[in-house]
């Protein structure tokens, strides 16, 4: 269960958002500048709400009334950005291992193999990011996040930099992740088709406010 009830001033825009869901995938949908990325940055602990609370899996990680703000490294959250943000001087295997080492996790060969198989990236391990397609880079970034064994995965426009062919290539991997791994996700997008395919609960934002929320049927055609 994810519960968010926050306000934050973002320049001239006042963000006000309140929602909760236990859906495997929550979709934050809306145009650029609606406040979607600001919400997941607060969920990740990268920024603090001006007022409000955030609860992840029963644990309160932000409560401004109590002065509570759990730092990002203690939240056990995986984050995948629009640009994969892989280390160019490291190969795929080293990039994948980064999440595990940063979270001080013991090596887990079985978990690694499951993620390699899930995302079909085992054959890429010796390559550098510059030798990968855009879709392959995003699959490696997703694998790195999963290998940190997060309790929540945040996906900020992960397909936003890809053309339609690459989107069609990678979307099934997100569907497999949703269906085969027990990791709740928050999926940020301005694409209704992507959101409709992946999300069970949709929060629609415009100019910092929630204008609708519910099932995928609320999305525009």
Mean pLDDT value? 94
Overall SS class: alpha/beta
Strand content: 25-35%
DSSP helix count? 6
Q: Low-confidence stretches at least 5 residues in length (pLDDT < 50)?
A: none
H-E order: EEEHEEEEHHHEHEHEE
Categorize the overall geometry. globular
The radius of gyration computed from the alpha-carbon positions, rounded to a whole number of angstroms, is 17 Å
- Please report the distance between the alpha carbons of the first and last residues: 28 Å
User: Tell me about the biggest sheet?
Assistant: 6 strands, mixed
Helix content: 25-40%
Q: How many strands in all? A: 11
Strand order of the largest sheet: 7-8-9-3-10-11
Could you give a quick summary of the protein structure above?
The chain has 221 residues and is of the alpha/beta class. It has 6 helices and 11 strands.
Structure description:
With 221 residues, this protein is of the alpha/beta class. The chain has 6 helices and 11 strands. The strands form 2 sheets. It has a 6-stranded mixed beta sheet, sandwiched between helices. Strands 2-1-4-5-6 form a 5-stranded antiparallel beta sheet, covered by helices on one side. A hairpin with a 2-residue loop joins strand 10 (201-206) and strand 11 (209-214). The protein starts with a strand and ends in a 7-residue tail after the last strand.
What is the topological layout?
Layout (H helix, E strand, L loop, with lengths): L1 E9 L2 E9 L3 E5 L6 H9 L6 E6 L2 E5 L4 E2 L7 E4 L11 H11 L6 H11 L14 H13 L5 E5 L7 H17 L4 E5 L2 H7 L2 E6 L2 E6 L7
Parallel strand pairs: 3-9, 3-10, 7-8, 8-9
Antiparallel strand pairs: 1-2, 1-4, 4-5, 5-6, 10-11
């Amino acid at each position: 269960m994810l519960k968010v009830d926050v306000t934050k001033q973002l320049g001239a825009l006042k963000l006000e958002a309140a929602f909760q869901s236990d859906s495997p995938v929550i979709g934050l949908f809306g145009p650029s500048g609606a406040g979607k990325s600001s919400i997941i940055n607060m969920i990740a602990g990268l920024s603090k709400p001006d007022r409000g609370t955030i609860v992840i899996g029963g644990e309160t990680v932000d409560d401004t009334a109590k002065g509570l703000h759990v730092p990002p490294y203690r939240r056990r959250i995986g984050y995948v950005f629009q640009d994969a943000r892989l280390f160019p001087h490291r190969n795929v295997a080293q990039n994948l291992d980064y999440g595990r080492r940063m979270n001080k996790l013991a090596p887990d060969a079985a978990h690694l193999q499951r993620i390699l198989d899930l995302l079909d990236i085992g054959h890429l391990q010796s390559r550098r990011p510059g030798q990968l397609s855009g879709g392959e880079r995003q699959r490696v970034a997703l694998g790195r996040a999963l290998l940190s064994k997060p309790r929540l995965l945040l996906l900020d426009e992960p397909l936003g930099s890809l053309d339609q062919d690459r989107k069609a290539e990678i979307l099934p991997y997100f569907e497999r992740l949703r269906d085969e791994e027990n990791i709740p996700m928050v999926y940020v997008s301005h694409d209704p088709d992507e959101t409709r395919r992946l999300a069970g609960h949709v929060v629609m934002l415009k100019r910092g406010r929630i204008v609708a929320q519910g099932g995928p049927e609320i999305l525009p055609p």
